[in-house]
Design goal:
Its EC number is 1.2.4.2. Belongs to the alpha-ketoglutarate dehydrogenase family. The protein is an alpha/beta fold and 990 residues long. The protein is built from 32 helices and 28 strands.
């Protein structure tokens, strides 16, 4: 600003600030805001609001400005006023037309009210029953906006012309002023018809303006003839597919999309628009409602394969399969308008409606990671919800809570709610406490578009906005498609039991396909012959595919893979495991790296405790030894050296819940400055990502499941803060990990780490509940698999998941590496220790990890008892940490060679072959199973059944452990110590 202009501004400043303080509709830093506005006014008086034009004009001419001090003027603002007032005192001159200013401010308030609350009166519900829908004719009838828009309204002259402020885009090009009547009319067209938008809580002005432009500009809803024909064609295909299924399988459940039919054309519009912005791969999460139609018309799944799911055919491949509306699939398609190729993946999902959402996010994030797509331009997650499920299922909060976390963001997801206004049989008024089912989206500042499902062109417009928003801002956006459910919860359900008034109205409703066809016929966009041609063509396709399906004699579950691993299984011996041992030089190099401080050139200030830990590690490495933390580091370092991406995720995993890991160092005097020692162990290594998650189990475990689905040549680990915390992710365990391969032919190599052990920490921090995982193992307790040279690998090949409880760092090293070395993928449930992390006896030698070594499913006794097995009186079998408790009891009570202890490191698949050898070695010993868990918990019952089968009940199995209990552990330290002493006595008793 020039000195002359600055002087002029300073003379006006006190009154400007006073004027500013009274106009609460303005925001920003007061002095800078007024200075910018004054500069603009000097160049062009019409560029500012008429009230400020009047203010500057009168003040510059020496006319007085009316001023009344605000009752609660902030001290800082008052100080600023005082400082500027000291430079120049304003002249006292004649009064100004205050009413003109107030009227213009009132118009601004009305505009803002429509932007913020117009959705309250928009006609969103095709049934006109939701919230007792208001009509939008109130302005023309009463001369004022609806009460929901503005509580008070002082302007009476609807023909008075007002200047349009910069906060609205309702004016056409060149229109800077409009009569109040026209202003209100255009605002109602923008915000009160069939689209209701919530966005004024967004704190970014550019984002708010983006939505204003696309909602308010005259003619934004106008669509080309080509677009209208395309929408109608897609709508007809949607409707005819449902009609065909209803005709052929009238009594079968299919969870059709009727009543929200525009979901399919809308979803395809999002895909079309997003491909224009560079998206190459779409990942869809969808429950049962509309899934078959999505498969048919979005993924273009061969219809005969869908129809085959309606007939009782035997599967030709292994697995249980799943119902037809749970399957996933994948496809590659071409956008016919842009000729761009793209992929669509619809992930399999169980009846646990929203459980797939975080899986989709993880799958999308992995795709972006492997493609180096740091801004998320090429891969897009589209999450599709039901209205009751979106507001009712907590996993949605957990999933959306990951939206902008650095290691979990997918750079914006598009959320599409199929809102049929009823949850199974529950009225929405009794199924949620918020006004809208979509209110969760406000947590992440997502704009929310409510749109009437019976207005196809409004739906398409909103879908275009959603695709553009995500492409521009890479943030979440929500579409709430408000429709209805033409049938009951499923086609065999009777909805009149619980929604009689709703379904009385639905029965009289014409389908949206017929209604939109009639509209376009009136507009002469299409002809009756064109409509008939589209219907006939699609029905012929359905009939031809139906005939093809009738000739099939089997179905193939593999046809429904959602994340195939191209080239992974081909050319491999399914029973050959890559060796897991590594050269000593590799171990020494990794050990040196993780026991050294950051390079001196970084000038990195370490915590003194970290320095002490590094010194301890250095001493161990020099002695060719490792503890648990070094075992983890050796496994990770050796894998990234081999080009295997490793990702470790969970609460506090960077440091480790028990402060043992320290894979991220934090500069002690510089905020956010960190160093990751395993990030640069070798040149050209694969990336290692270790990331503390949000305080979530369900959402984050699902995310890591999706991440692990992307690439089999990776090691993905999720660690619970304590083993029992997996409870809140039980759905993911049951639906995606335990039986994912059986239901959906979907292998996954995810490792789940569950800290486990009875240390007197009470019932919530002791047991990871191994009994639950073992109960879900699919091996038969009454059948010993046939022996053979490939016994162990064949067991792994045939099992649903692996359950292990390692007792040595070397075995941990091997079992992590084995996850990648296997020629197939299985989930690994690994019970990890707590006090063993620093136990002086829990160490391993380099010799146990060198080439030629491998994971030990069973670790036999190597003490004095093993030297004289014929005279051993007692053979104790155990797993995990309790081994060290037994050894401690032996030491204190000076047990000799009468008792042998064998560790079962891999509980499932059960090591029959190795235990048979142990029993033969100790023919005269009493066999005991020892555990620290209660008798009705832990591995005991699982192990007992298999030991009895192996021994053909020729030898009795004795139990050593705590008695049965409803709680996993005692909460009283004194009782815990008493139990520990009791167990010690039982360990040594003959």
């Amino acid at each position: 600003m020039s000195s002359l202009k600055l002087l002029s501004f300073l003379k006006l400043a006190p009154q400007c600030l006073r004027h500013y303080s009274e106009t609460s509709f303005l925001t920003g830093t007061s002095s800078q805001y007024i200075e910018d506005m004054y500069n603009a006014w000097l160049k062009d008086p019409s560029s500012v609001h008429v009230s400020w034009d009047s203010f500057f004009r009168n003040t510059s001419q020496g006319l007085p400005q009316p001023y009344h001090a605000p009752p609660n003027l902030a001290p800082s603002k008052g100080a600023l006023v005082s400082q500027i007032a000291a430079v120049a005192t304003p002249p006292q001159t004649a009064p100004l037309d205050e009413r003109t200013i107030e009227d213009h401010l009132a118009v601004q308030a009305v505009i803002r009210s429509y932007q913020a609350r117009g959705h309250l009166v928009a006609k969103l519900d095709p049934l006109e029953i939701m919230f007792n829908d208001k009509t939008t004719t109130t302005v023309s009838q009463t001369g004022s906006p609806p009460e929901e828009i503005l509580r008070t309204f002082r302007l009476e002259n609807l023909d008075k012309v007002y200047k349009l402020p910069s906060s609205t885009y309702i004016g056409a090009e060149g229109e800077k002023k409009l009569p109040l009547r026209e202003i209100l009319h255009r605002l109602e067209l923008a915000y009160c018809r069939h689209i209701g938008v919530e966005y004024m809580y967004i704190d970014d002005l550019e984002q708010r303006d983006f939505i204003r432009r696309r909602m308010e500009a005259p003619g934004v809803l106008n669509q080309s003839t080509v677009q209208k024909k395309l929408t109608l064609t897609r709508l007809i295909r949607t409707v005819e597919f449902e009609n065909f299924l209803a005709k052929k399988w009238a009594s079968e459940k299919r969870f059709g999309i009727e009543g929200c039919d525009m979901f399919i054309p809308g979803l395809e519009q999002i895909i079309d628009k997003s491909t224009e912005h560079g998206v190459e791969h779409f990942f869809l999460g969808l429950s049962h409602r509309g899934r078959l139609n999505t498969l048919a018309n979005i993924l273009r799944k061969p219809l005969y394969q869908i129809f085959n799911q309606f007939v009782p055919l035997e599967p030709a491949d292994l697995g249980s399969g799943d119902v037809k509306y749970h399957h996933g699939s994948h496809t590659q398609r071409t956008n016919q308008l842009t000729q761009k190729h793209y992929k669509v993946t619809l992930l399999a999902n169980p009846s646990h409606l929203e459980s797939v959402n975080s899986v989709v996010l993880g799958r999308t994030r992995a795709e972006q990671f492997y493609k180096g797509d740091d801004e998320g331009k090429k891969s897009l997650a589209i999450l599709i919800h039901g209205d009751a499920a979106f507001s009712g299922q907590g996993v949605n909060y957990e999933s959306y809570g990951l939206s902008y976390l650095p290691h979990y963001t997918t750079h914006g997801a598009i959320c599409f709610i199929i809102n049929n206004q009823v949850g199974f049989t529950t009225d929405p008024r009794f199924s949620r406490s918020s006004r809208y089912c979509s209110d969760l989206g406000k947590v992440v500042n997502a704009p929310i578009f409510h749109v009437n499902a019976d207005d196809p062109e409004s739906v398409i417009h909103v879908c275009n906005i959603a695709a553009e928003w995500r492409a521009k801002f890479h943030k979440d956006i929500i579409i709430d498609l408000v429709g209805y459910r033409r049938h009951g919860h499923n086609e065999a359900d009777e909805p009149m039991f619980t929604q009689p008034l709703m379904y009385t109205k639905i029965k009289s409703m014409a389908s949206i396909g017929d209604k939109y066809s009639s509209e376009l016929l009136k507009e002469k966009v299409v002809t009756k012959d064109e409509i008939k041609h589209v219907k006939d063509d699609y029905n012929k396709l359905c009939e031809d595919e139906y005939v093809k399906a009738s000739k099939q004699t089997q179905i193939f579950i593999r046809d429904w893979l959602d994340s195939p691993w191209s080239g992974f299984f081909e050319g491999k011996d399914p029973l050959k495991v890559t060796p897991t041992g590594v050269p000593e030089a590799t171990l020494a190099h990794i050990g040196a790296k993780v026991s050294s401080p950051p390079p001196p050139n970084l000038d990195f200030v370490l915590h003194k405790g970290i320095t002490r830990i590094l010194n301890q590690r250095e001493a161990m490495v020099k002695n060719r030894q490792i503890d648990w933390a070094l075992g983890e580091a050796m496994a990770i370092g050796s894998l990234v050296k081999e080009g295997v991406h490793v990702r470790l995720s969970g609460e506090d995993v960077e440091r480790g819940t028990f402060s043992h890991r320290h894979h991220v160092y934090h500069h002690q005097t510089v905020d956010k400055m960190t160093y990751q020692p395993l990030g640069d162990v070798f040149d050209a290594q694969a990336p290692y990502v270790v990331c503390n998650s949000s305080l979530s189990e369900y959402g984050v475990l699902g995310f890591e499941v999706g991440y692990a689905l992307a690439n089999p040549n990776s090691l993905i680990l999720w660690e619970a803060q304590f083993g029992d915390f997996y409870n809140t992710a039980q759905c993911i365990m049951d639906q995606f990990l335990c039986c994912g391969q059986a239901k959906w032919m979907r292998q996954i190599g995810l490792v789940v780490l569950l800290p486990h052990g009875f240390d007197g920490m009470g019932p919530e921090h002791s047991s990871g509940r191994p009994e639950r995982f073992l109960q879900n193992c699919d091996d038969d307790p009454d059948v010993v698999p046939p022996p053979g040279p490939d016994f162990a690998i064949k067991q792994l090949h045939d099992c649903n998941w692996i359950v292990a409880n390692c007792s040595t760092p070397a075995n941990l090293f091997h079992i992590w590496r084995r996850q990648v070395a296997l020629p197939f993928r299985k989930p690994l449930i690994l019970f990890s220790p707590k006090n063993l992390l620093r136990h002086p006896e829990c160490k391993s030698s380099f010799d146990e990890m060198l080439e030629g070594t491998e994971f030990k499913r069973v670790i036999p006794d190597s003490g004095p008892a093993s030297q004289d097995p014929q005279n051993v009186k007692k053979l104790i079998l155990c797993t995990g940490k309790v081994y060290y408790d037994i050894m401690d009891a032996f030491k204190k009570k000076k047990v000799g060679k009468e008792i042998a202890v064998t560790r079962v490191e891999q509980l499932s698949p059960f090591p029959y072959d190795l235990l048979k050898t142990e029993f033969e070695k100790y023919p005269n010993a009493k066999i005991c199973w020892a555990q620290e868990e209660h008798k009705n918990g832990g591995p005991y019952l699982y192990v007992l059944a298999r030991l009895n089968t192996l021994l053909n009940r020729s030898r009795e199995i004795h139990y050593i452990g705590r008695a049965v209990s409803a709680a996993p552990a005692t909460g009283t330290k004194a009782v815990h110590l008493k139990e520990v002493e009791m167990l010690a006595n039982e360990f040594v008793a003959l």
